[in-house]
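User: Show me a protein chain along with its predicted structure.
Assistant: Here is one chain, sequence first, then structure tokens.
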Amino acid sequence: MNATSRVDIKPFTRRGTCPALSAPMQTGDGLLSRIAFTDAISPNDLAALCALAVQNGNGLIDITARGGLQFRGLTAESAVALEHDVLALGLPLRQGLAVETSPLAGMDDTAIADPRDIVRRIEERSDALHLSERLAAKMSVIIDGGGHVSMADLLADIRLKAVRAHDGVLWQLVLGGAEAKALQAGFLRTEHAADAVIDLLTYLADRGLDARGRDLDIETVRAVCAGRLLGSVSGQNIAADKEVHHYGLMRLSQNLFAAALAPAYGQIPAEALSSLCTVASTLGINIVRPGPAHALYCLGNEEACQRLLVQAHEAGFVTNAHDPRSGIAVCAGEPACASAFIATRELAEHAATDCAALLDGSITLHLSGCGKGCAHPTAAPLAISGSSEGLAFRYSGRVSDAPDVILPVTEQKAALSRLARLYEKEHKPGENARALLARLGRQKIVAALRQDDR
């Protein structure tokens, strides 16, 4: 149906469906629409989207943990107008199956491999087979060629990760979840990678809309891959997990750099983002791509990227890993989300100030308005959510897990302050927050929240 002929917007009836441009989702502050890109856009393109956010919504833009752009505060009528206006810009919008890769793919010389040809072949075959219509609503495929941008924490039903072998590059097949806890199924040669992914997706599609990558066992995977899967290969080099720095200056090649920055807690007024786009254009930066960790990757020469980071920092953006706000995963919360029990962003501001020492970059503090955990679906060292019973806390878990303790909602700021005081009391020189929490353990952390030592 042509966008201009659509007369109404229907809310989702299929659980887990993403809020697409043509099918916005009802939230506490109106309808929400999301777009994602398959290629680079310019700062001017992003500024045009900011103008549409003001024109059609409440003027707030979210950058999601997977690099999508969300427009908030839409009405049924303005959502239709937004769709029409966004499509008129002719941007490289993702449609159909979500096949994700680094926003720096093909431009980052530190990567092991360029994944774009594999992505293209998967997308073409998926479209030809109409797979997106037959797969689970949030089915995700990640093709990770390595490089500066870490995609390890993103959930994926099917993941290919480039590894070096003695005779070239292989692709490690990983299934069902974040990289660290997913099924490590084996290795594929480059020429077999796209076909194996399509065959696995087809297998899942044949099993219905509820089938996910986590449902695949190793014997099924071997059967579907039909001899293409290599169990082990001599000479493979799977790099150990490196310390991830999502933000700051990144050298991509001899003359190309990226300024990686993010709006605090993934949300920003459109006017502020548009102003930064004007600065980027003035500096000669002509490529920008949203990506993981709510980041914007702005590409240019070294001087331009450094100057942009300075300007972004002054404007309140997160520009380095030492910013305590970068260690907080937070959803929209009250009043923007109708499901939320707490004002998560207000609580995050308190945490960034009072718990700054604890948020040293080694841990994530997850603040969720409810038990769905939209902002951080995987486990976090410290996870707090609002609920009808009160403020639910979990140590090293997801907000959907059974809580370790439930506190009165009125104690939400006090609870964070207790964690900060626990850090001050127990921290040893040279010990990061992750090591400290592991040493203290669940019982002592929960006791501190309960104030059992009074």
